[in-house]
Design goal:
Blueprint lengths: L2 H11 L12 E4 L9 E4 L4 H10 L3 E4 L16 H7 L3 E4 L2 H5 L4 H8 L3 E10 L2 E13 L1 H11 L6 E3 L5 E10 L4 H6 L4 E5 L3 H10 L2 E4 L2 H5 L3 H12 L5 E3 L11
Parallel strand pairs: 2-3, 2-11, 3-4, 8-9, 9-10
Antiparallel strand pairs: 1-4, 5-6, 6-8, 7-10
């Protein structure tokens, strides 16, 4: 199996054509014809993830977040891309295509919260979209729902504002989805779960009567790695080790 085969397997499950215009997923570093010797799966490429790939003898890193997101004007020794090239590592990243695709980030997030009758929160193309909307099995108060999300996502903490209403219908969006609060309100949701929520968005949520939970960018997306690793394992077969990085950790600390 080569790097291109892994790319194609991911593309079959989460087509790169689904990615949003601002995004930069795909094969971002390396040779598509390179034979895959080992694969490390992580949310991000970091220095520690590169070190782990080298120590494990992996020559392909598969991530959710693109290692090259903004245009680069130079590649120097202090950049991750330089380190990857020098180490002979390829990188395939599946970002908003994996957010949008069925079975991807947002379906997994909705399933973790046991939401029923789910549908896209905001349509990006016919039949597909970012985020999910669904129903809880039973109504909850805002504090009860906050503890529920914390437990179901196995988080140390969550931030939330109390929308003041019982919660039955919930929107979710993995990563940074504060800009979709209006869509959650339009979908008739009493609660919205996402990450990276700004103060002004929390204030707007209270005004709209929506309980908004900031479960963290990492916390709402790292849950996709088992699924992503499974796609890769199916592509490369049993002869190639595919592991989720031990160094795939949230770099922030809650005290």
């Amino acid at each position: 199996m080569n790097v291109k085969d892994v790319y194609n397997a991911i593309d079959a499950a989460a087509p790169f054509s689904l990615a949003m215009d601002f995004d930069n997923p795909g094969l971002l570093v390396g040779d598509p014809d390179e034979q895959v010797k080992g694969v490390l799966v992580a949310l991000d490429v970091t220095d520690n993830v590169i070190d782990e790939a080298v120590s494990r003898g992996a020559n392909l890193i598969v991530t959710h977040h693109p290692v090259i997101f903004h245009p680069m004007k130079r590649v120097t020794a202090d950049t991750l891309v330089w380190r990857l090239v020098r180490a002979g590592l390829s990188v395939v990243s599946a970002h908003t295509n994996l957010d949008i695709a069925r079975g991807g980030v947002n379906d997994i997030l909705a399933a973790r919260l046991e939401l029923a009758d789910t549908a896209p929160l905001e349509e990006t193309c016919p039949g597909e979209g970012i985020g999910r909307v669904g129903a809880l099995a039973r109504g909850m108060t805002p504090p009860e729902f906050a503890y529920y999300v914390k437990r179901m996502l196995d988080l140390q903490a969550v931030r939330y504002c109390d929308g003041g209403r019982a919660i039955e219908r919930v929107a979710v969006c993995g990563g940074s989805g504060g800009n979709m609060l209006e869509a959650a309100a339009a979908a008739g949701c009493q609660a919205y779960v996402t990450g990276d929520v700004k103060h002004d968005v929390m204030l707007d949520a209270v005004h709209r009567g929506i309980t908004l939970l900031d479960a963290g960018h990492f916390g709402t997306e790292t849950i996709v790695l088992d699924y992503l690793a499974g796609l890769v394992r199916a592509a490369v077969g049993e002869g190639v080790p595919v592991v989720i990085a031990r160094t795939n950790v949230d770099v922030t600390t809650t005290i």
